[in-house]
Amino acid sequence: MVITVLLLAGVIGWFSSSPLFWILAWPGTAIHELMHWTIGLVTFGKPISINIMPSPPGDGDRVLGSVEFANVGWWNALPIGLAPLLAFPLALGFASTLQFDWSLTSILCTWIIASVISQCWPSPGDWQIAFSKPAGVLVWVGLVYYMFQ
Questions:
Q1: Of 22-31, 60-69, 133-142, which range is least confident?
Q2: To 10 degrees, the CA torsion angle through 135, 136, 140, 146?
Q3: Which of 63, 75, 66 minimizes the C-alpha distance to 34?
Q4: Overall number of domains in the chain
Q5: Which residues have CB under 8 Å from 59's CB, separation 6+?
Q6: I need a surface site. Which of 82, 83, 119, 147 has the fewest CB within 10 A?
Q7: What's the pLDDT tens digit per position in 25-52?
């Protein structure tokens, strides 16, 4: 089932320039933004607002969702920016428990998990936030190095 979900996540990505993409990607977008919000809350980033609805099409890139924070500092910028990556192992864990049988529930669960996987990569703006505080990046890299030494 994991292979099926990963393939479907790739198919969802192929639709990125289609209006259908926003529908296919919505569950993943919601989880993506909720991961930012949750990690922001846990790391004292003080989330102010969350938006899980895509912006109307305009001149620039369409924004699928966003979270605004009041307190992004050196200690929490990296975890807040990279928070959606945490959804990947969680989604794979759920995918490994699925038994696909063509029922509506099974189809919906497969789509939702594939959507989450397709949207768990941080956006360019997320990467900017994650690496906006070089001191924090050094501290987090040092911490991870120390833990796995």
A1: 60-69
A2: 40
A3: 66
A4: 1
A5: none
A6: 147
A7: 999 999 999 999 999 999 999 999 999 9
| Two tokens, residue 12 | 């969802």
- Could you tell me the two tokens for 8? 């479907």
Would you state the structure tokens that stand for residue 109, as one six-digit string? 């669960």
Q: pTM score, two decimals? A: 0.91
- Amino acid letter, residue 71: N
Residue 15 exposed, middle or buried by CB count within 10 Å (0-12, 13-18, 19+): middle
- Please name the helix (run of DSSP H) or strand (run of DSSP E) that holds residue 77, with its range, or none: helix 77-82
Identity of residue 36 = H
Residues 65-84 as b or e (16 or more Cβ within 10 Å = b): bbbebeebeebbbbbbbbbb
Three-state DSSP class for residue 68: strand
- Domain range for residue 30? 2-147
Measured in whole angstroms, how far is the alpha carbon of residue 80 from the centre of its chain?
Answer: 11
Q: How many helices (H) and strands (E) does the chain have?
A: 7, 2
